[in-house]
Design a protein that fits this description.
Elements (H helix, E strand, L loop, with lengths): L2 E10 L4 E3 H5 L6 H8 L3 E3 L8 H16 L8 E5 L10 H9 L5 E5 L5 H14 L5 E8 L12 H4 L5 E10 L5 E9 L7 E2 L10 H7 L10 E2 L1 H22 L9 E4 L4 H10 L11 H4 L6 H11 L8 E8 L3 E8 L1
Parallel strand pairs: 4-5, 4-6, 11-12
Antiparallel strand pairs: 1-7, 2-3, 6-7, 8-13, 9-10, 12-13
Helix pairs in contact: 3-4, 8-9
The structure holds oxa(dethia)-CoA (UT7).
């Protein structure tokens, strides 16, 4: 029996900074509303023709591989989490395999939105724990900006999301008291449409419907979020799934050295921080700078925390996410 551990981390965000004031030139919004409700000051948007979800993932992965000191030829499997793939199909996993020149290993695409990275790490961990693979490359990457409704109609969603990518190289750890101790995944499809992008799809809104109708009032191809409902569920599920992970390992909130919550809303992170009685040093947030980057938010935040020396050997690190699906999960790591 083995554990997996994160051996290398990397992130990449596009250079183009978009402030709240920049957005207020496109829609009826303002810096005060955005900061007060979400904590966000600015986010990054890809300039058309520069990056894609895959290219950002590749850039983050290269840094993670270098830091892990693992050659691309030693990667046994790729897991790529995103809700904004370059193509309808194939998914970005194979594009990363191509771009990085990795040999013909398996490439899996994970579609779990804000929980994508937690799901992806859990999958990688199971493959490593079972002994099937030794080194797995996990990527979370999103290019939201060009799929958002940048008019006042879409302001409740479009001010929140940003672009970026994060990556982790997971490798086999023989000492089972170290590395990923456990992962905890949940879903509640009853609320699938409360945070969703309906079209294009082969369900309610077919691709051909959109092409035929050219209906400017049709918002089904923009993300929709029932903000308050999602918020209420988020605070409950974040708390539950962190507690579930701690209890599974006979730990208490006081044992947490670093909580990396998915960066959905600073108010959600602060609620969770208060609920568990954690200090500012025990919770890492960077939503102020990047907005909500969905599947990329945890690996970007984890990398920044690690780079700042806030994640050290022996620390108990907790990753937790909640999002569209609804899906949610946590990962408990002894670093
Ligand atoms: O990452 C996946 C999980 N995501 C989350 O967990 C997000 C959860 N939800 C949230 O973070 C919050 O619900 C939001 C930040 C999305 C919205 O904050 P809120 O405090 O729930 O605001 P609201 O939707 O209730 O809207 C309040 C008011 C409305 O105006 P009226 O009806 O009171 O006149 C909105 O029209 O704010 C208005 N509004 C805005 N005003 C300025 C909505 N968006 C904006 C905006 N700028 N961008």
């Amino acid at each position: 029996m083995y554990n997996s551990k994160i051996k290398g981390l990397g992130y990449y965000v596009p250079d183009n900074v978009v402030t709240n004031d920049d957005l207020s030139k496109l829609m009826d919004t303002n810096d005060e509303w955005i900061q007060e409700r979400t904590g966000i000051k600015e986010r990054r948007h890809v300039v058309r023709g520069t990056d894609t979800t895959t290219s950002m993932g590749v850039k983050a992965a290269k840094i993670a591989l270098e830091r892990a000191e693992i050659d691309k030829d030693d990667i046994d499997f790729i897991v790529f989490a995103t809700l904004s793939p370059d193509y309808y199909f194939p998914g970005p996993g194979v594009l990363v395999q191509r771009e990085l020149g990795i040999k013909t290993v398996g490439a899996l695409d994970v579609r779990n939105q804000c929980s994508g990275f937690v799901y992806a790490v859990s999958v990688a961990d199971q493959y490593i724990k079972s002994g099937m693979y030794k080194n797995v490359l996990v990527i979370g990457s999103e290019l939201h900006s060009h799929g958002l409704d940048m008019t006042t109609r879409g302001r409740a969603v479009s001010v929140i999301f940003g672009d970026g990518a994060g990556a982790a190289v997971l490798t086999r750890e023989d000492d089972t008291s170290k590395g990923v101790l456990s992962s905890h995944l949940h879903s509640e499809g009853q609320h699938a449409e409360e945070l969703s992008l309906i079209a294009p799809g082969m369900g309610k809104r077919w691709v051909t419907d959109i092409l035929d109708e050219k209906d400017s009032e049709d918002v089904s191809y923009f993300p929709y979020m029932n903000g308050q409902f999602v918020f209420k569920n988020a605070v409950v599920r974040f708390s539950e799934v962190i507690m579930e992970g701690l209890q599974k390992n006979e730990l208490t909130p006081g044992d947490i050295d670093m909580l990396i919550p998915h960066q959905a809303n600073l108010r959600i992170s602060q609620f969770v921080q208060k609920k568990f009685g954690l200090s500012d040093d025990q919770v890492f947030n960077n939503i102020m700078s990047y907005g909500n980057t969905t599947a990329a938010s945890i690996p970007i935040a984890l990398t920044e925390a690690w780079e700042a020396g806030k994640v050290k050997a022996g620390d108990l690190v907790v990753l937790a996410a909640f999002g569209s699906g609804f899906t949610w999960g946590s990962i408990i790591i002894r670093w």
